[in-house]
Structures are given as C-alpha cells and as structure tokens.
C-alpha cells in the first residue's frame, strides 16, 4: 500500500459516477418501454438481462415460506437479533409534530406523517445483501410507511436468494417482486399491471439502477445515490497493524473503486499496515476486487499530530471513519464530517454494517459535509398548518398587504384585504 | 374560469421544467467558465446578462447601511416582526442527538450538527423578494449554520434592491454578493477568487438557476427545485366567492405556469367564483401573468361531497391548500398530501407567504406526497456513532462474522475476528 506524508496534501479525491451517454440513453429507453408496455416489458428485460423466463413478477407466499424453511436457523436468529438492534436505534428518530398557539386565537403547526409507500431495490447475484433489506425496510417501518415493497433481480432459475426472502419474512414484508436494473426502478416509479407505483424508492444498485433513480427523481422521491464504499482510519502507535489492515480491506473488498485510507502519526504503524495489507490481500477471496481499490483509490498518510489527522479526515468527510488512538473518544468529539464514526479498537466497521443498530446506508463522495445516514426522517413528510382567527387577521392584515406590495404582488395584498370587502347578495 | 364536474377526473397535471438541451448545454458551459476563470468569468457574465459593469462582487458594509437608511421604516418594522414569527416557528424544529447505552459497555449514538456554510440565491429584478431572504436564511440560522451567504443579480447600475439588503441587515447577514443566474450557482458551488464555496445552495430562481442547481447537486447540497406556484381551495357554500377568487389570483399572479384550482360542492359558488376571477383579473397589475395561468393551468371542479373534494386534493397534493368550509378543521384533519394547509376564511394564503411564521418554500408538482417545506432539518446533518466495548465485541463477533460470510464478504468477517488474532512483536 502506498505511504506518503500528509503535508504533501490529500490526493484521494472521490467523484460521483455519472454514467456514459450511452448508458443514460439506454436507461431512458428502458424506462419508456416499461411505461408503454408494463409487465410485458418487464418479462422481456428480465429474460434479456437476468436470463430468467418469468410468468409472474410477484414472489408467492409459498416461495417465501420455502426460503425460510431452507434458511439456516442460526442465521435467521442472527438476522432477527440484528433487526431488533436496528429497530431500537431507529425508534429514537421518531418525530413529533408541534403546534404554536397565539393569544389572538391563531396558530401555526407542523404535522408529521409517514410517506405512504416505499419501494426498496435489493441487488441480486453476488451482491444480494440481506443486511440491506434490514437497513432500508426498518427505518420505513418505524416511520409508519404503510406499504413497503421489495424488488430484486432473480437468478436464471427465476428465484430470489433465501437470505433476502428470509429477511423480508423477519420484517413481515410480503410484497416482493422479481426484477432488477433500470426496469425495476421504472416499475416502482410508474407502475405496471402487477406493480402499483410507490412514492419513494431507496436501496443500492449498479450504475443502471443509479441512473434510473436519477431519471425518475421528482416523479417519485429517491434516497441518495451512493458511490463506492469508503473507510478512513485515524490511528496512532497504540493500534495494531493487522487489525487496521483487516478493517481497511473490509471496505476495499466491496468495489474496485472503493477507498481505504489510513491517517497516522506513526511511521512504524504505516509500514506495518502496508505490509499487512499486502499479506492479508493474498488470501482474501475477493482479492481481485480489493487489489485495484487498494492500488488506485487508497493511501496511507503520515501526519505530525493527531490534530493534523483530524483536519485531513474532515477534508475527506469519509463514509466510515474509525478511530484507533489512545484517546479515541476525545478525537471523535473533534471530528466534524463523517457518515459514521467507529470509536476504539473493538468498533470494527462491519459491526455497523450488520449489527450495532446504526444504518449502513451512509453518505459517500465527501457528501458527509451535508448528508446523513438513511433514517426515519427519510420516510416522513411535514405539512405546515396555518389557522388565522378573525382577530389575528385584523391585527396583521395591513402589515401583510404592505409586504406584498413591497414585492409588487398586488394580488397577494388584495387577497388578504378581500375579507373586508363589502359583500353582495351571493356569498 | 373553466368549470367542470370532478367525476370526469382531475385534468390538472403538474410536471417539472426540464430545460431544453440548448439551455442545459449553456448552463454547463457557464459553470465550466466560472471554474476555469473565476471572478473574471463572473464579471463578464454579469455585464453580458445583467448589464452591470462591476469591479467587485461583494456588497460593501456601506451599501447595506445606505440601503437600510433609504428603506421605509414601517416596512423595516414589518419585516422585523415577520422575521420574529418565522424564527419562532422554526425554533421548534431544532433537533437533538441521542445516545443508547447497552449493559455491555457499548453504545450507539446520533450526533446532530449544522451544515457549516449555506448560500442563498435571491432572484433580482421584479422578483427580488425580501420575504425569500427571511424564509431561506432563518432556518439556516436556527440550525446553527455559521456562514450564510446571499447572492443576487444586480440592476444595471450595479446595485441590489434595498429590500433585499434591508432583510439581510435585519438578519445580521453581511456576506452578500452581486451575481445572478447559473454563474452565481457555480460560484457558490466551486468558489472564485472572491467567493469561498459553500456546502449547500438554496433559493428560488429561473430555469438557468434551476438547471445549474441540478448540475452542481452532489458536489454541494441543494434544496428542492421548485416549480411554478400552486393553490387549491376546498370550499362549500359558506365561502365568499370574492375571497376565494382573490386567493386563487394571489397564486396565479406569480407565474404564467402557476395553477389555481377550486374544489367545491357548490355550483352556485363555482359560478360566482368564475365570474369574480374574470372581474378581479381585469384590474390586476400582473393580469398578463395571471391570465394565462388561469386559462391554461387552472380549473373549478364541482364534486358531490366534501370527501370527494378531499380525495381530489390529495391527488393534486398541492403546494398550498386552503379550506373554506363549515367545518374546516375537520376537513384539514383528513388531508393527507399538501405542502401547507390554510384553515378557515381568515387564513388567506399570503399570510403564510409573509407573516405567520411557516416557511413559504414548499413542495410543488405533487411532490407534497413525499416532500416538505424548507426547514431547519435541511441545514443539519447527522453522524452515526458506534462504540463497541471489548465485551460487546466478544458477545457478538461470531454473529457478525456469520452474517458477513452469508453475504460472501470474508474480509468483513476477518476484520471483526482480527481483534483475536495472535499479535506479533509490532502492534
């Protein structure tokens, strides 16, 4: 792994995948096909890209029951325990409305309600992640979304993975469809004969899914468009090189474009981690994915002080930030920008991916400067409410009319004044 | 105004302005110019499109002081009172973090912090709205954003409107720049010699501003991209036709593409409102703007029951919804989708635009199904925090490793297990 002095500046830059013009055109065409031909287009695309001949998009209750039956009971228990932790963490995000009453009988209020329907895209194949089902569905459930739908590309034999279906079962989700790529996003956004459209689409996916989400954004809501995984670790000479290396590789194995960065005050640790990364890479099953991530998007930076490391971490604003220093809590308190912070030696990043309860859908590409983890807040909406009494109107109408006229909006002024116009015989 | 039966279905459809290919290309070119040439490009574009020859982009303290001096003291008092109402309403949106401690010494937490910098685009010319300054700046201030910047296109003489500068003064904002259009958005996103970039850009603007915001989205955060104004009114025979008509026109005067819809159970009211709209239009200063909005994007629907009207309103999910019925509160309680609800005869829509305290930046184009008013929540971010103790790790490491291996992520499993690897001589 490459090692450099931090004083030469941060060279790791993260950018959003834009997609080629060809990909954008293809995605637009797919969406139009689904709009025009509904299920027929869905069946055609699923045969073309997933190699599965379907006669129905909906997963049957029996298929779910059979998947649960086949699924390792120990893993089912693990997923159930993880789901409970995730639910507990997200329950603290429940939001209340409020109402402010004035003495003149007027009030203003904020009403909080859940979005009515949400569709979660679950990638298929090697990236069929049961944990993604938990992380996307649970915040929606805690928010009170009444209809939650899963959609995921089938294998060639027309089935979804047992892990995904078992996760759906644990969460009580029974509306599950077989479809992937841009066509799945289009079906969720615009509906087909067998899929009623949803109000919000969330979940990870490949470039076609990301482009389709960007395309339908506005007609329906979408969550963030996530980039490749990122980890940064701040460590001093109290950290163990093999553990730092293992944590760096845990994110590198996600994607050839993933980024793993070590920020350290210790030259000795830098060298040892560099060596450990190479050593551990050799036996990693996903070595072919992790190697280019380490070679092209990763770096070990050596800084003069912990404060310099903190400054660099804020500049990166990484998706995941681990802190393995003597006084890890104090360092964490000073961090301004990170999606999630993992404090101390025993808070290895995968603990957050699977189990601790926080959400693993996190801002990438330095957007932690202004974005947050997927949460209950993403599945609610707020309606403003204004009730003016006659007295409140009387007390304030002149001010409001003056402000409207200041902006050249005579119609606004007249609307407020119309309540005092002389009334004719018709109301 | 056109009148039709609701049973024939809602014909008002709202869509997002996409911009022509030519406009998109022009906006991309402007952004690149600003990235490449900074202030020089800003001066050139400002001369080209605003007709103003500038030597400095920054508004001086003296310019602000002089604008306040010239400004009507009564209006200054009105804006100050409005600002206090807006601040009070938004203060209830302040969000707290939380921390959940487990018996094994581990904890998960959510830390809430403000975005560090925000830039507000304020349209110039006839649409220079002091109220927009209040509505965008105050939520950011309540959130705790430490740097708030205004940018607005100058008149030909190189000045900004007294109303905008007076509003900035009231709010204690002193970093104000003269620039409009896509170049202003580019400068806020990427910076120039004289403008330090911001983390989030909010505020209304024309199609070039909207396209530029879409273009920079991801590199910085943006607020929603708002469409033309919308109002829907649910009214029964207790409503006054002249007041209903005046309120419809208050939104129609914003934009030729604005939409004003009346939903009523009363044929008599329908006819009277139709007549009143035509009558009031004739003397409206912005008649040329309101007329096409009324002719092309507005409608009076007659329904059989209040419930049918409620159903239709939910289908529209309008930006503004007024309720003028005998039991307006009960009707309001049943509404599921609207940006803001104005209850009863005295809650004319402009009260919310200027004074009541709720935010006038609201979801348009039926996006109230899943979007909300601009708020304090738009200017904060949340960081997840995970601290696992040795005991928590010990208790859960096997489960986490199993879940990682279920997903084929061996590197994740090893990271968690690495804490129990035998250590060599180096840490």
UniProtKB/TrEMBL annotation, chains A, B:
Cofactor binding, note field: Binds 1 zinc ion per subunit.
Keyword NAD: yes
Alphabetized UniProt keyword annotations: Amino-acid biosynthesis, Histidine biosynthesis, Metal-binding, NAD, Oxidoreductase, Zinc
This enzyme's EC code(s): 1.1.1.23
Cellular component annotations (GO), alphabetically ordered: cytosol
Superkingdom of origin organism: Bacteria
Binding site for substrate: 229, 251, 254, 320, 353, 407, 412
GO process annotations (BP): L-histidine biosynthetic process
Cofactors demanded by this protein: Zn(2+)
NCBIfam families given in the database record: hisD (TIGR00069)
Family: Belongs to the histidinol dehydrogenase family.
Function per UniProt: Catalyzes the sequential NAD-dependent oxidations of L-histidinol to L-histidinaldehyde and then to L-histidine.
Entry protein name: Histidinol dehydrogenase
Organism of provenance: Planococcus donghaensis
């Amino acid at each position: 792994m490459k090692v450099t002095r931090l004083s030469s500046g941060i060279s790791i830059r993260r950018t959003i995948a834009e997609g080629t013009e060809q990909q954008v055109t293809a995605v637009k065409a797919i969406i139009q096909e689904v709009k025009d031909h509904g299920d027929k287009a869905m069946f055609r695309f699923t045969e073309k890209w997933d190699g599965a001949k379907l006669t129905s998009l909906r997963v049957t209750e029996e298929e779910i029951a059979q998947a649960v039956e086949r699924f390792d009971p120990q893993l089912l228990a693990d997923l159930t325990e993880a789901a409970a932790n995730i639910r507990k963490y997200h329950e603290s995000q429940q939001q209340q409305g409020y109402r402010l009453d004035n003495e003149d009988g007027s009030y203003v209020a904020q009403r909080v309600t859940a979005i009515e329907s949400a569709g979660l895209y679950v990638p298929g194949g090697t990236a069929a992640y049961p944990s993604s089902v938990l992380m996307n569905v649970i915040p929606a459930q805690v928010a009170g979304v009444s209809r939650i739908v899963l959609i995921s590309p089938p294998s060639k034999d027309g089935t979804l993975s047992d892990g995904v279906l078992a996760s759906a079962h644990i969460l009580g989700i029974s509306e599950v469809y077989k479809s992937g790529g841009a066509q799945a996003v289009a079906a969720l956004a615009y509906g087909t004969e067998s899929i009623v459209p949803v109000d919000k689409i969330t979940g990870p996916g490949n470039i076609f899914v990301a482009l389709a989400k960007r395309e339908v954004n506005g007609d329906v809501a979408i969550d963030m468009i996530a980039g490749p995984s990122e980890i940064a670790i701040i460590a001093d000479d109290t950290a163990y090189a093999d553990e730092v290396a293992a944590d760096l590789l845990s994110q590198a194995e996600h994607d050839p474009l993933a980024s793993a960065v070590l920020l350290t005050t210790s030259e000795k640790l830098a060298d040892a981690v560099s060596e450990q990364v190479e050593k551990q890479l050799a036996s990693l099953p996903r070595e072919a994915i992790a190697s280019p991530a380490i070679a092209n998007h990763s770096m070990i930076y050596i800084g003069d002080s912990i404060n310099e490391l903190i400054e660099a971490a804020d500049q990166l604003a990484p998706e995941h930030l681990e802190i393995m220093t003597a006084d890890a809590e104090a360092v964490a308190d000073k961090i301004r920008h990170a999606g999630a912070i993992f404090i101390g030696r025993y808070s290895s990043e995968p603990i957050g991916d699977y189990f601790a309860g926080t959400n693993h859908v996190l801002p990438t590409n330095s957007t932690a400067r202004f974005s947050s983890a997927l949460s209950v807040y993403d599945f609610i909406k707020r309606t403003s409410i204004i009730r003016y009494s006659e007295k409140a109107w009387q007390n304030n109408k002149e001010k409001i009319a003056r402000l409207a006229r200041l902006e050249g909006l005579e119609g606004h002024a007249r609307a407020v004044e119309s309540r005092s116009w002389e009334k004719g015989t018709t109301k």
